[in-house]
Design the sequence.
């Protein structure tokens, strides 16, 4: 029994932190679709990671990766999220687009896309959610229909798409058939975003502008070569993608950083440490440790094949609830200053950003309600499922 | 990272589980509450036969792991025995037969009547004291085996106390495993009941409100599994700080409150009955959850220890320079 990621992981963490300290400005708060400055920082950082062999460490060697063990991947996830995901949209290519193309892509697709992802030059967006298909993703309706000339025509809408403004390619889930089970009629296309008929509209949100978008497809032409896998194989691919992303974002890593910086801030004001906020803070530290350990459990079980459908949901629920709780705590500690996004504000405006972002943490990548459903069903088995 | 238990520890835990099952499981606990003497007559020989007095938790990581799974098995039937206090004690003729956690002078300790004397170690100061029972069990519903205690003398912080301070860490870990064992059973009972109980024509497990409660229970239970494992590892490695020990206690308390409250609610009225195990589990855990420090008191102790020792994490908190608050301490 050992609850330690080991020396190799510790060295990797140190190396990543040194690189981040050199390459990422202190006030970096993530790469946004509509901000060329942060996008350039992100692109430069990815190229640097690529040069140092750190960009695709999770990939198999024969695809240019390092076959890094799951704990190195965990460290990478933690350090990236704790430092506002400096890889920007490219994390998608590394984490799940690339692996999906490795498994389902044609040799031509592998040649075209894997090379650019590994070079830190590919920007993807995910076209999954629709206005009528959120948690119930299999209900998606964006239509891909055969035209008389043998090509495809894409018509419909996607929503909540991150990084759509900077994406080169969309990993697009479409409906190619309404026959049989709704899961059976889904097909994935890899669609260049500069194709005629695609319109990107920004959605201003509480997280700020540049986070969310709508995509409109109007008679967009697609080809058989754009199809990933086979027509109708989309649901299998989506499930594989969800599997690649099962461990999820290391939200607890940013929580850990927030609590550490918050403690330093509170240490200058003993009345804060002594009062209720001090007690809430230390409870937050314990919950953060728990969330991290639950995530490690998911990683370990994924690695040894003992994972259940409830395991990742437990880790996610612990992390997302923590995110919200700590954002509220930090805002209470800062009082009125929590409203300020000025880099001169306490904690560099970190708290204002954390609070806004926390509003999304139980919604993005699978809602809290879906996680609870998965956990409960995992516990009660068939009895928890509707006939 | 390796979450696997050694086979020997697993085997020992199963042996304890089987032994307690032979005595009657939770039913034995009910019997002991009605007649505390069955602890001496039946449980002490069973535990001695299993080798409890020879387990060297403080000296051997393998023994510590075996003890943890023994405590988990004991907790599964809320065995009426101070498992953590006994197993955390150092070995040796002059050593205390049991070590309890304290927060100030101890007025009552569970099962103290089973020993002529015992040691307490203060969660705040880590100083130890000798305590002795004042008579036998004075049973109350939420303190079924509470025994009035008197302090014989205080040892202070000498060499013996250093060993006992480590025993305090062991006590926290083993208490967490005992509580975990109980929470696991409460969870399983609630899950089974939710699948069997039919209302409005369907198992209540299919209702969102019940699913919400069950998901709370699972996250709390699983969180304690991991936190306890991490704390046990830190203890075995000799790197556990007083802050780690208190963090475990706080995590244990929060998990217990969630699991016990939510499972009761899933059961509805039936879960309130004494014939139902969840009520026995709930009542019998309360002394471990309230004594020597509840959630708020433990949070305060943890805060103070973080100031002295810092807190290990991805972005660790450093100890404050003077080992306490920068300005005047206000309590």
Sequence:
């Amino acid at each position: 029994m050992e609850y330690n990621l080991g020396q190799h992981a510790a060295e990797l963490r140190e190396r990543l932190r040194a690189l981040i300290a050199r390459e990422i400005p202190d006030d970096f708060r993530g790469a946004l679709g509509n901000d060329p400055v942060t996008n350039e920082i992100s692109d430069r950082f990815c190229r640097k990671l690529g040069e140092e062999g750190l960009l695709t460490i999770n990939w198999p060697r024969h695809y240019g990766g390092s076959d890094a063990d799951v704990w190195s991947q965990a460290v990478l996830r933690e350090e990236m999220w704790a430092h506002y995901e400096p890889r920007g949209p490219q994390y998608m290519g590394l984490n799940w687009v690339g692996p999906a193309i490795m498994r389902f892509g044609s040799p031509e697709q592998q040649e075209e896309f894997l090379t650019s992802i590994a070079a830190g030059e590919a920007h993807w967006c995910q076209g999954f959610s629709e206005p009528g298909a959120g948690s119930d993703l299999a209900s998606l309706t964006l239509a891909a229909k055969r035209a008389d000339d043998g090509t495809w025509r894409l018509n419909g809408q996607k929503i909540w798409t991150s990084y759509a403004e900077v994406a080169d390619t969309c990993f697009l889930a479409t409906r190619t058939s309404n026959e049989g089970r709704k899961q059976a009629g889904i097909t994935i296309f890899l669609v260049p975003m500069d194709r005629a008929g695609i319109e990107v509209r920004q959605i201003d949100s509480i997280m700020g502008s540049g986070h969310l978008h709508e995509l409109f497809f109007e008679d967009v032409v697609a080809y058989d070569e754009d199809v990933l896998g086979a027509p109708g194989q989309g649901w299998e691919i989506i499930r594989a993608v969800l599997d690649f992303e099962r461990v999820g974002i290391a939200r607890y890593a940013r929580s850990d950083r927030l609590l550490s910086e918050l403690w330093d801030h509170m240490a200058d004001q003993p009345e804060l440490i002594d009062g209720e906020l001090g007690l809430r803070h230390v409870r937050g530290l314990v919950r953060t440790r728990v969330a991290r350990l639950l995530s490690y459990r998911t990683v370990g079980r994924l690695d040894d094949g003992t994972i259940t459908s409830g395991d990742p949901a437990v880790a996610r629920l612990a992390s997302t609830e923590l995110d919200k709780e700590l954002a509220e705590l930090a805002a209470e500690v800062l009082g009125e200053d929590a409203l300020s996004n000025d880099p001169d504000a306490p904690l560099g405006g970190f708290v204002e950003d954390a609070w806004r972002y926390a509003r999304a943490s139980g919604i993005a990548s699978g809602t809290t309600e879906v996680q609870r459903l998965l956990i409960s069903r995992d516990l009660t088995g068939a009895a928890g499922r509707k006939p | 990272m390796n979450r696997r238990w050694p086979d020997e520890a697993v085997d020992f835990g199963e042996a304890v589980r089987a032994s307690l099952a032979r005595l009657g499981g939770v039913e034995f606990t009910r019997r002991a509450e009605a007649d505390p003497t069955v602890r001496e007559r039946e449980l002490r020989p069973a535990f001695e036969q299993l080798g409890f007095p020879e387990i060297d938790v403080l000296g051997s990581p393998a023994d510590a792991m075996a003890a943890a799974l023994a405590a988990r098995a004991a907790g599964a039937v809320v065995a009426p025995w101070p498992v953590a206090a006994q197993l955390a004690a150092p070995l040796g003729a002059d050593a205390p037969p049991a070590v309890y956690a304290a927060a100030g002078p101890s007025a009552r300790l569970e099962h103290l009547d089973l020993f002529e004397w015992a040691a307490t170690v203060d969660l705040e100061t880590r100083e130890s004291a000798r305590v002795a029972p004042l008579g036998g069990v004075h049973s109350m519903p939420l303190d079924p085996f509470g025994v009035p205690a008197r302090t014989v003398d205080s040892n202070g912080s000498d060499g013996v106390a250093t060993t006992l301070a480590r025993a305090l860490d062991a006590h926290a870990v083993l208490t967490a495993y005992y509580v975990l064992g109980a929470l696991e059973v409460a969870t399983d009972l609630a899950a089974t009941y939710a699948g069997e109980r039919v209302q409005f024509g369907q198992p209540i497990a299919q209702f969102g409100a019940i699913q919400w409660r069950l998901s709370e229970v699972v996250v709390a239970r699983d969180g304690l599994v991991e936190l306890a494992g991490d704390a046990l590892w830190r203890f075995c490695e000799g790197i556990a700080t007083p802050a780690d020990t208190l963090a475990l206690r706080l995590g244990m308390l929060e998990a217990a409150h969630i699991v016990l409250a939510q499972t009761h609610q899933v059961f509805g009225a039936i879960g309130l009955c004494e014939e139902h195990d969840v009520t026995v589990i709930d009542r019998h855990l309360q002394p471990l959850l309230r004594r020597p420090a509840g959630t708020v008191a433990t949070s305060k102790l943890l805060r103070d220890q973080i100031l002295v020792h810092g807190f290990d994490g991805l972005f660790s908190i450093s100890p404050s320079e003077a080992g306490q608050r920068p300005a005047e301490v206000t309590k």
User: Anything to note?
Assistant: The longest helix of chain A spans residues 276-304. The CA atoms of residues 3 and 346 of chain A lie 34 Å apart. Chain A has a mean pLDDT of 93.
